Fold this protein.
Amino acid sequence: MSLVKLQNVTKVYRTDGIAFPALDDISLSVEAGEFLSIAGPSGSGKTTALNLIGCLDKPTGGAIFLDDVDIGAGNSSELANIRRHKIGFIFQTFNLVPILTAFENVELPLILKGDMGKAERRALVEEILVDVGLKELMNRRPSRMSGGQQQRVAAARALVKKPRLILADEPTANLDSKTGEEVLDLMLQLNRKSGVTFIFSTHDKMVMDYARRLILLKDGRIAADEQREPRRQARDNGAAGSGGPHVDAS
Amino acid sequence: MLTLLKLAFRNIFRFKRRTIITFCSVSVGLALLIITVCLMNGIDKQSIGNIINCQTSHLKIFKTGYFAKKDEVPMNLTISDPDRICALIKNIPGVAAVEGRVLFGAGLIMGMDELPCLGVAIQPGLDPGLFNIKESLSAGEWLEPGDAKLLVGKNLAHDIGLSVGDTVTLRMITSPDKEDFSWNALELEVKGIFESGNPTVDSGQVFIPLARAQEALAMPSAVTEIAVRLDSDDENKIAAVQRKIQEALKPGKEGLEVYTWKDLAGLFLVISEMKTKRSAMIILIMLVIASMGIINTMMMAVLERTREIGMLAALGMKKWEIMKLFIFEGGFIGIIGSLTGCVLGGLAGWYLQVHGWSLASMGESIKKMSAAVYPVKDVFYAEVSVDVLIMVFLFGTAISILASVYPAWKAARLDPVEALRHI
Ligand SMILES: Nc1ncnc2c1ncn2[C@@H]1O[C@H](COP(=O)(O)OP(=O)(O)OP(=O)(O)O)[C@@H](O)[C@H]1O
Ligand SMILES: [Mg+2]
């Protein structure tokens, strides 16, 4: 059973009566635990694909299954429920809530899920903040954190509810290359540690090198889909601070 | 729910300047509203007090038919045995004082000038128990029962040029009917000048002892009205005593009718009603101003936070949760603004209740205009009540919440994908 399955998916945008196919007949399946990159030049349809997989949007044609559930059938409230329970997002521009502290930002998805007491939430949030090496900064607001730190908070926020899938749309594009690598290291460690599936998009060669599987998009079509030996490994010092990430190599 | 509230509360401090402007427009608007309402209530209360204390007392008893013609001051519809009726009424619980009086049409003649006025014949010993004319003497002295003297309202005395000690001719119209018009004249000394604060009385009435009037009008021992003062201003009590008096008078048999001050103050109450309509207009304007401020602020907030809304939707926040978030935010501004408005308005109202609002500074013409409308002297006292404060607070909060609904709906309606693409 695949975690994500796209069957002949198309997405057509219509502006001023002119139809533009952003995705054209895409079929693919993603297994649980994959660390997958969707790559391609600007305008190739990466964001569109992630939005569809993330239940933020519906395809114009074809079908998308998440855990064998056809998401095309869901209404907006049902899709919100799927996102709330199964999917974490990391955005290019971090998108933290500026009026909340790092701790509160990470806690937010758990509150929305609504199945945990305060103490349980606190323990979980603190644990994940240790994992991303930001325990010391947990009472800071995003405006007083660097871009890399903010993106690590965003990663923690995506991961904290233990989703089946984390979608990251160009998570390193707004970071310098060193910080970008730190964030990727962190994502890889989290993938290894908890087995959560990552799908991230990029047009950066260095970032692609982290992927175990690379899907190349070109003009809304899949130009290549290859399993690959990762060129880069997670480095143990990674993004973590003194607490250090607790990673068991598998 | 708690999180949404917390989030909404913090959001209001995000754009401090805009929040403060909205907040001020709400609180200043509501404070002005409170001041207006409290002043109007105060003026009404003052006016009612003046009407009761100088003109109507709480209840009046007339011969059947008199009330309908009271503006003509008829002299043929009199109560012939007032002492017996007064004794009957005095025993009714709640009645504090009773006085038989005669009202008559009159003219005050000084040299070539004659000013029309209303003559009020009173019992100097009883009258102060019902009315406040004695208290409001500004010059001279109170009447004695046997005096051949009169008291004149301050404005009337001023208009015709009278002072205490002057002698004046009082022309008493004994029968105002057109066919049977007759009159009598008395030479009287001005014993005192009063200033009650009720313009109708001060500029149009003279007071003389009852015995003198009965003699001159050839109606010995008869009166045109019996005024009744109760020990409470309470409307329900007045109505209850009115019923008891009606029972005591065995309707029909005595040929007498009982009216409350409200029946007698007809014109004033019509004006008061008009004022209520006008204040409804003011409230409407405040409503529009306050809600425009909030709608504007919330629309800006939605616009500026578009991407954040997309992100919250991506985290799985549902449309109605997003909607609630913004409604709470507008509601918070409304609650805090209303609270501040109530405190400001309450304090200002309280100041005006204690110190009053003087029209003296606003010039003669305004003073004259207001005197034509309100039976009140030229200082208005506000009347602050908790009811008004609570009403205005609830009103302000409700408006703010209502005004947030549209922007909140706009936010909830955003397509998450579009919202996330927003720069
Ligand atoms: N809402 C929309 N309306 C119209 N056209 C759109 C819309 N969203 C995307 N497109 C178009 O669809 C195509 C694919 O867009 P998409 O954002 O998926 O590309 P991308 O691979 O993420 O590009 P980038 O690397 O610049 O982020 C682009 O040509 C874009 O202009
Ligand atoms: Mg993109």
Summary: The first strand of chain A starts at residue 4 and ends at 15. Strands of chain A lie at 4-15, 18-30, 35-39, 61-66, 69-70, 87-90, 165-169, 197-202, 213-218, 221-227. The helical segments of chain A are 46-53, 76-86, 102-113, 118-131, 147-159, 177-194, 205-208.
